[in-house]
Amino acid sequence: MEFDLWWLLVLPLMFALGWLASRVDLRQVGKERALRRDAPQAYYRGLNHLLNEQQDKAIDAFIEAMTADPDTVDLHFALGNLFRRRGEYERAVRVHQNLLSRADLPREARERAQLALAQDFFKAGLLDRAETAYEDLRRSAYASQALTSLLQISERTQDWHKAIARAAELELRATGTYQRQIAQYWCELAAQHQAAGREAEAQQALDAALQASPQGVRPRMLRAQWAQQRGDLALALQSLESIDLVQPEFLALAAVQIAQLRQQLGQVQEGLAWLRQRLEQTPAIDLLDAVLLLDPDPASRARCAQGYLQSHRSLLALKRVLEHPAPGAVVPEVATAMQGAVDNALRSRQRYRCAACGFEARQYFWHCPGCQGWETYPPRRLEELSLLGS
Ligand SMILES: [Zn+2]
């Protein structure tokens, strides 16, 4: 009986001691955790501000979180990216450099920080520093990404030799096909050589362009341009007409020039027959213009323009009909007024539009000034395109 009583006393005592011990323990740990708990809270607050597009408050919260827990690598990245997005490149660079200066940084995080730093430099327009930073990533997990950015840098700095080498390396890495782009780089290089009077090098670059992309239109147009400058009109004509064999829809870009060459060579009838046939096969307003330029007979010109309008009901075609009226059909003053009306309606419809970004331009571009894409412009003006789409 005595034993039982003793036991009844000891049990609550042990329980109380245990409880006390656990309280003391928890308080100790709690103190250590308090600081760390602030970090995630500030982190979530920052995220919340970000989602509400309150970037200033988000940055304050992230800085607070970083002060509470300087080891958090992800916070550095979040903050650095925020700075970069706001255009505060100096601060972004400082955050990422701070991260890179840490000796204990694991390899994966170091490479990621290096990439972020390269992106900061790139966005800030410090292309030489960006190039160095990206070059350092060539053997990292971000090699392909770095190489793509290096390619962009060589395009911006118009270093076409480097662009060609980097595009070829990207192709070796099986990140896609770059042959058409490489052909465009060779064309840029050829134009550079030609402008500097290095004709042999220009010719070699042009050959390389055609080797990279045998269906290329631009090398054929460049070759024609240079041949014409040298007075070799026959070669110029042959080069332009060869576009018909590779990408007939691009004849539109060369049609008027072809008509002028035929005229200069005294081959009007031969040229007319060729152009009329192409106009039938791949109708385009530029081919109509070429025929109208070459045809000496006003009645025949009027018929041709009217025939085109019947099958292509565009303002461009209507304009040609008004410009080439059948003899005696319209009073000249009325014809002028009608042309004016059509010109007004056409004003914004005569441009070329990038298929990738929608950038519009009066002149045809091989390299879009808007999105930096290559060969993104269809060889048809807006007015003609809307006709094809309908
Ligand atoms: Zn574009």
Automatic annotation (TrEMBL):
Keywords: Cell inner membrane, Cell membrane, Iron, Membrane, Metal-binding, Repeat, TPR repeat, Transmembrane, Transmembrane helix. GO terms for molecular function: iron ion binding. Pfam families: Zn_ribbon_LapB. Fe cation binds at residues 354, 357, 368, 371. GO terms for biological process: lipopolysaccharide metabolic process; regulation of lipid biosynthetic process. It comes from the Bacteria. It is found in: Cell inner membrane. One of its GO terms (cellular component) is cytoplasmic side of plasma membrane. Residues 26-390 are cytoplasmic. TPR repeats lie at residues 39-72. The keyword Ribonucleoprotein does not apply. Residues 352-376 form the LapB rubredoxin metal binding domain. Coiled coil: none annotated. It is a single-pass membrane protein. Its main location: membrane. The chain crosses the membrane at residues 6-26. Belongs to the LapB family. Modulates cellular lipopolysaccharide (LPS) levels by regulating LpxC, which is involved in lipid A biosynthesis. May act by modulating the proteolytic activity of FtsH towards LpxC. May also coordinate assembly of proteins involved in LPS synthesis at the plasma membrane. This is Lipopolysaccharide assembly protein B. It comes from Thiomonas bhubaneswarensis.
